[in-house]
Structures are given as structure tokens and as C-alpha cells.
Sequence to fold (531 residues):
Amino acid sequence: MVFTLQRYVFRELFRVFLLATIGLTLILSLGGVLGPVQEYGVGPRQVLHILLYFMPITLTFVLPMSALFASALTYGRFASDNELDACRASGVSLFTMVYPGLALAILVAIANLLLSFHVMPYFVHLAEKSLKADAKQILFRNIQRRGFYKMPPDGRFLIYADNVDPKGDTLSGIVVVQSERGAIRDIRTADAARVRFDSQENSNQVTLEVYGLQQMAQAGSMGGTMEFGSFQADFGSLLGDDIKFKKVDEIKQIRANLMRFDPVGKVARSAFTQLATEALAKDLSEKLGTSAERPYELRGRDRAVRFTASRCALRDEGNIDLLGPIRVEEYDSLSGRHLRTLRCDKAMIHVDEDLAGPGLSLDLHSPRVEVTGQLVVRHIVSRLALPAPLQQSLHRAGVLETVVPQGAAAILQGPPTSMLAALQKQLDREIRRTLVDIEAEMNSRLVFGIGCVPMILIGIGLGIINRGGHLLSAFGASCVPAAVLVVTIISGKRLTGNLGSEGLSGTAIMWAGLAALTVLAAFIYRRLART
Fold:
């Protein structure tokens, strides 16, 4: 008889729980799709895919609320219809009738933990892959609608185009603006371009094969024109690279190797590139200052150059200015054959971000061929490599160990410039922020998942106590403790994320909210036991 009653209660609970879950999931999932639709202009097919991928994400928040609604409504109706009193009069205790609600609470808690730690991050990655698979359509659709598109995730590259041909994968009347920390670093224009997407594991590489390429001269930089050229950029994370979207295995891997986390990796790569730039500038200053007639050699796969200059100077991040008179001898790397000798008064060495070995390009401003005197508007020797001694010193340890102040000082044999020091401080903040975010995220998922049990038990107890009132009033009252738990979790995460405070205090606030709900649930059931 007892089992029959419990099965009857659980069936009623589950029916209301299922209907509430379906309704809330559809409503909230539709709301979650609006952001990508407005941000990226995805089409109808992508909207359906994203809607399916967002449903498991929404379930993480919907399941506790649906269970709370079902428990308060079902047990409130049983109490108001005197069914619970009839059971107690038949010798069935109140706590025996609460077992179905407790079973639902435990199931919801387990489902919530599985969703938050494993399922939800997995579906976020699926949604990300779905969007990146249609990256070309997103790019063309946004340029058609607005005339421009900011390359995610940070909008460093801004692409303008007058005309778009999606069928031919071409753009015409193009302007590409590259910015760095709010300042315009480079502006390039082109008559036309063909767009090519190269899919990679973490991102898509966007290549613009451009015709009639022009680089506008900025303050302290050089302009120029080329008939044909290419421009590459990463089509980065569309949904945001955040710890809250990571699976527990990924979080453990990030904690073991912070370079796996893209926000840390980006700053580390920038700092590594700047360290390589300053090490190269120091080596250039020493060797060019020793003998102006002794050339400095840079070798690459196809080309090698030997050059002399009066001096060099760091201009900005990743760039070294060479000041004249400058004499450059260009050779074929494989055969060693001399190609030509150029002379100019100004040149620039640009260091590219590449952890395997930063690549170099030598940009000569209005050089003349030494033999003929022919003027070349602009000449760039790319895909050069750092000298072997510098590469060895940069790769003696890992990237993070190399770019920290101690490692950088050992390589530079002195203090870093203000540019590298700023990147080191930014990297230190990013590392500390990532570590505290990991701590906050792991604890918040645990607290919210475990908190489903006392939250639902409180809903059951308030439903029984409020038997004479409106059925929804018990649900409204039980939402208050649930809101308190959510507030303590959010407050704890923000306090933990505050780099000026101890992470332990934020974690304690999260668990204190769970403890408060447990105490309240015990108080409510102690009162019910006395009635």
C-alpha cells in the first residue's frame, strides 16, 4: 500500500515536472538564440541547430526550477485536498510521503551536476562548431547587411567591402583595419579579394587573396602598393572562450597547462613575441655598433639577407626600426646565389607571433638597386628566422617560464622595456584571473547541483504548510530561498573573481548559502513533524 501511494505521488510529481521543463526549456532556449542571430546574422538552418544545442544548456537552470514548481504545486494540492491527512490517519507518516519528492530532488541534483560538468560544455562546443562551419556565410551575410564585419572574438580586424559575391567567394572595394587596444595599427585597401577559409581544430583561418593591395602610411610606418598579396586572420571563438563553458577534463588540463586556455595563451604569445623583439634589438645594437661594415645575417627558407645599418631602435610592439644608411644583400637560401643589393635610408623588421620560432620580415622603404639605381617603391623579405643563438635562449624553458620577469631578465641581461613590462603584468593578471575563475566555477557548479536537494525539499514543505492558500503562493515563497542560493553563488563568484580579495572568502559565501538552505529545510520539517 505504501509503495502504491508513493508511486502515485511520484507520477503526479513527474507529470507536472515534465510539462514545466518542456515549456520553460523552449521559452529560454528561444531567448538564448536571439543573441547569436543578432550578433552574427545566422540563417534559418543555423537557428534550428543552435536551438537544439542550447536546450541542454538551458536545462541546467530549468530542471531545478521545474522540480521546485512541481513539488510545491503537487504537495500543496495533496495537502489542500486532505489527501496527506488521510494518509497520516491510515498510519502512513508524512516523511514516507515525502520520499517521492526526495527521489525527484536527488535525480535533479545528479542530472544538474552531469549537465553542468559534462553535457552543457559539450553542447556549447557543438554550437561553436556549427557556427564556425558556416563562418563564410556569416562573414558575407554581415558585410551584405552592414557593409562591414568585425572578426571575432576581439574585433581586432575590421573588414569593409562595397560589393559582395557569395557564389564566387569574392569581395570588391575592400578596406581592412587592424587595431590594437583601441588604436588603429594598420589600414590596407584592395580592389578585389577572394575569401578562403581553412578549418582548424580551434578556429578558422581566413585568407584574403587580394588584388591591387595598398597599405596606407601611418605615423612612423611605411605605405606601399602591390599588385597581388594575401592577408590572413583567425576567425576566433564566436560564443566566447570562457571557463564556464569548459568541461571538467578541460578545466583540469588548463589548470595543469595554462597555455591551453586561449585568453592566457594570447597574452603569453604577445609577451613572447615582444621578448624576441627586444632580444633581437639588443643583439642588433651590439653587433651593428661594433662594426658598421660587418653585416648582420638573417636566414629563411627561400631567402637570406645580410645588411648593415648605422643603428636600430624599438618603435612599438613587434617592430624594430633600422636607420640608414642601410645596405642589404639578398641571397637564395638554398643555392647561396646572390640576387641583388639594395640601399635605403629606412627599414623595419617585424616580428610575427609564432611560438615555434618567431618569424621575421624585413620591410625596406623606397630602396634602390645598387648596380642600376632602380627605385623600388617597397620591398619586403618575409619568412626569415631569428638567429640560432637567440632561438636557443628563447626555447630553453616553456613559454610562461620564459616570459616572466626572471626568465626575460636572464635572456635580455637587463630590465625589459615598458612595452614588455606591461605585457608581463597583463599576463600575470590573466593567469591569476584564470586560476580564481577555475576555483569559482568548480565550486559554483557543485553548490548549485547539491543545492537542488534542500531547495526542492523546502518547496515540498512550504506547499504542505500553505495548504489553505493559493497553490502558486507556496511556489512563490519557495523561490525566495532559491533566489538566496543563486545570489550567494553569484556574489561568491564575483568576490572570488576580484583579484584584490582572497578566493577562499568567495568560496565560503557559496557554501554558506547552501548551508543556510539546509538549515531552513531542517527547520521546516521539524515544524511539520510537530503538527
